[in-house]
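Any chance you'd type out a single protein's sequence alongside its tokenized fold?
>
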Amino acid sequence: MHISETKITVRYAETDQMGVVYHANYLVWLEVGRTQLVSELGFRYASMEEEGILSPVVDVHISYHKPAKYGEQVTVRTWVDAYDGIRVTYGYEVIDGQGQCSVKAKTQHVCVKKDSFRPIILKKHFPDWDQAYRRALG
């Protein structure tokens, strides 16, 4: 299984008055990690969008374990957790500066046509992506 690791330094603007990361900002970090993983697999979401295909999030599960804090460097670990040719589920862990898990999450995505939001079969439209996802699963 391929696991991507993305380093992020917690910025002041990402924290609340207590100096801990505001819960919604973790979703932004998941996107950063997901984009990095896709890049490591050899692709760009922008290329898919240029062909009229989008990849919206259709489901999110996130569990908060330990807050990350201002100034800390966190690591977003991202991998392909499940893939069935239509839906892809990414798994994530956000590891804090002390090596402890702050967040565990999963996001599920479906590729759709931009004009109709109708799902596509990835293998048919983007066979290289399909193969890369299958390889990434291990």
User: Anything to note?
Assistant: The two ends are 4 Å apart (CA to CA). The mean pLDDT is 94.
